[in-house]
Amino acid sequence: MKVQRAESPAMLAGHDAARNFFSACFIGPNAATEMLWVAHVDDHARCIHLGRYAEGQHGAVDLPVREIIADAARLGSAGILLAHNHPSGDPTPSPADCRATRTLARAAEAIDLTVVDHMIFANRNQCQSMRRMGLL
Q1: Taking Cα atoms as reference points, which of 110, 55, 56, 115 lies closest to residue 82?
Q2: HEC profile for 57-96?
Q3: Which residue in 29, 50, 73, 96 is deepest, having the highest Cβ count within 10 Å?
Q4: Could you tell me the keywords of this UniProt record (predicted)?
């Protein structure tokens, strides 16, 4: 996992704030490789930790549930926001995206952790929110 710490905690309250925050993760050379980023937030929606948890080949990326949950417990996260990209250009969640997110949400619930959203980015400005789509 690659870890980056924000200089001052970014506020991730709301769809637009989260979209703007994560969009920088998927520009330039990062746009061609599928990657999963997770922002851990406190109970005021401030980002306390941002990590790149996976990098995939051939249009797929694994969602490391145990690692994400363990980090959330260690950090004292109140919630997590996930973001990954689809280099194919279609931000529609795949059936595998939906299954993996539901599995993570069930595990998170067991430790009173909220999966705030899972956002999927494609191209420059396309983004789908699984929360807004009713999939979370």
Answers
A1: 115
A2: CCCCCCCCHHHHHHHHHHHCCCEEEEEEECCCCCCCCCHH
A3: 50
A4: Hydrolase, Metal-binding, Metalloprotease, Protease, Zinc
Residue 136 lies in a domain: no
- Report if residue 134 sits inside a domain: no
Strands 2-4 and 47-55: antiparallel
Helix (H, G, I), strand (E, B) or coil at 102: helix
**Short-list 81, 29, 94, CA closest to 51:** 81
Polymer length of the chain: 136
Query: Is 114:39 a contact under the CB 8 Å cutoff?
Result: no
Chain CA centroid to CA 130, Å? 11
The model's pLDDT over 55-99, given as tens digits with 9 standing for 90+, comes to 876 566 788 999 999 999 999 999 999 999 998 889 999 999 999
Domain that holds residue 105: 2-129
Instruction: Give the whole-angstrom CA distance, residue 76 versus residue 24.
Output: 25
Distance of CA 97 to the CA centre of its chain: 11
Q: DSSP letters along 10-47, please?
A: PB--SHHHHHHHHHGGGSGGGGGS-EEEEEEE-TTSBE
pLDDT score of 71: 97
Look up the CATH number of the domain holding residue 9.
3.40.140.10
